[in-house]
Amino acid sequence: MSTFDVVVIGAGPSGITAALTAANRGLRTALIDEQLSPGGQIYRNVDAVDNGMQTILGPEYLHGRTLTTRLQHSTVTRIQGASVWQISDDLEIAYLQAGVSKTLSARHLILATGAMERPSPMPGWTLPGVMNAGAAQIMMKTAAAVPSGDVVLVGDGPLLLLVGKQLLDAGASIKGLIQTSPIAQAGKAMRHLPKALLAPGYLIKGLRLLTHLRAGRVPFFRTDEAVNILGSDRVRGVSFIHKGQRIELTVDTVLLHHGVIPNVQITRMLRLEHRWDVDQQTWKPCCDGHGRSSNPSITICGDGAGIAGALAAEASGAIAGLDACFALGNLSEGERQKLVRRPARAHRRQLRIRPFLDTLYRAPEWLSAPLDETVVCRCEEVTAGQIREMARLGCKGPNQTKFFSRSGMGPCQGRMCGLTVSSILAAENGVSIEETGYYRIRPPLKPIPLLALSQARVARSAGTERNSQPNEDPTHE
Amino acid sequence: MFKLIESDAPQRRRICEIFVDGEPCQAMIGEPLAAALLKANCVPMRYTPVSGAPRAPLCMMGVCFECLVEVDGTPNVQACATPVREGMHVRLIHGARSIGQLGGAAQ
Ligand code: FES
After folding, report:
1. What ipTM does the predicted assembly reach?
2. Within 13 Å of residue A183, how many CA atoms lie on the same side as its CB?
């Protein structure tokens, strides 16, 4: 098994920068990533994107190439197309690549596993034709494709507006944008405006997006209640209350977006400490100013440590890379202090916009308290009503409701329902969400074929260097 | 459910053929299989094992597991995380599997 000084998981902006920082200081560094090419979701497929798509996705997307190019010319060992499924206490990392399980070990681990879109449970959200807005953007990035029928966007936040603009430019037919953030938030956000003005360029960009959508004649709606998504075998339309009136739109595709949240699957599996972030309404791992987690051998960077955006992620990757160097004795405290100054300043500048955005686009209350009949756990088809019923029967936390209803036990392992189930239980039991807790996440982090698992075991007990052998034939069950 | 955008920029799109439930279907090499299936209008893409409810990809980034299909005999593969290869055999999943149905059946 190969041993590296630093192993970074996730090749988005923060992971790439973290790996480059460590490698540039002479540390043996590996970067493991699920995709076949680096960039993360934000710069997904940036090196091979369709030519026609480049202008639509714009310079902020193409900026990712500066990172992938630097990575290409570095000494970082790149392991693409690899899903990490287990990490042991002594930082032995098992991953599945082309159907074969391999391992490597790290002296220090950096997690850069990024964010996911906040799940948007509402009636009908399991219907085919409903997608996350970010998913539609991934369709543009990886497949140069846009929805072929009529589209409605539901939710709020910078990404929703950006995706709306890009879809419009790419020739999609947008029938409306239904904003869901409570209107009272706009007033509250104003407090944070002065600070937001100091953040580079964000407000101007936001205003441009809005004007662009209005110029494109996209009708804007606003609702204070859950949107009903209609259809039986696939989406047929949406129905919602706008200014006291019920409106129905006939559409083929519904794109949902309520901001992004840290993907805590791996940090939960590692039993790192987490806390509830009231402003961002999400869990995040507890870290010190350098990204060091509650485990001294693990540093976390990028949106996985708390939502701050792609440019902040780049800076936080550099900070995390230096932290790993420091942890391994490659840097003295004094040297680190000097080197961290620049990325720390860049990071702070990017963070100035957050209080404004987090307040303005706060997810509506109804999202964390869905109507009884709404499916919350999509895999096992458990409804909000069933979770409430279990709370009334005495379930205190999500691991109990999991036991009784299988919610959180399907293939997604709670990624899609964890936040909602804990919120419902907290509200129903009248206790805080911290007290309610979260699912206990166990390996394998991603499903792994039994054959690969058995081979992994053999490799370990026999002490053989299985991962140095060329790929065997991908497994068949 | 999705269409390729029109563009006059010169392209390097490499088209290949894959098979969906035995039917030939065009796709671009390297694009996520789920994207190819959405462009080929394979919607619903699967029916759930619990109630047989229709589903299609939600996240396209590996977290929702709504895109599970069978690829070259391997069941429950995330189509959004699987790049298209020439000639791959895909089977859509209709409900729960039963005994006797186990094992690769794509060929
Ligand atoms: S579409 Fe969500 S995991 Fe594939």
Report:
1. 0.93
2. 8
